[in-house]
Amino acid sequence: CLLSRGLGDVYKRQVMDISSELVSTGVRPPGHAGDYVKMMECIVEGTNETLYISPHGIEGFEYVEGFKYKVRVRIINIANPPADGYTERYELVEIISKENIS
To answer: How many Cβ atoms sit within 10 Å of the Cβ of residue 84?
Structure first.
């Protein structure tokens, strides 16, 4: 379901499961081949699409390693993204569950 905020940005709401541990992923250019960053592994409910988002990449959400989350987010398509930047922005709508995995 796509919605509009009237400002040119189009967004949708999705529920995501966020892993309890950060995973290492390769760096976007201009990083070096051996460089890795730690990202949250997020499974989009209903699609099983996997997204890798920075631990600070969901506005209003504070990730704590060791907890598994189910969250509802607003995914906003950025109308005029920078050429080397992200095309979507993520905002927390609600934390559905937070489970201690330790």
So the answer is: 8
* Residue 60 tokens, joined: 């209003």
Cα four-point dihedral sign 96, 93, 4, 75 = negative
Q: What is the pLDDT of residues 19-37, one digit of tens each?
A: 999 998 876 555 666 677 8
Residues 49-88: pLDDT tens digits? 999 999 999 999 999 999 999 999 999 888 887 777 778 8
Which amino acid is located at 4 in the chain? Answer: S
Q: DSSP per residue over 32-65, as a string?
A: -TT-EEEEEEEEETTTTEEEEE-TT-EET----T
**What is the rounded CA–CA span in Å between residue 81 and residue 39?**
21
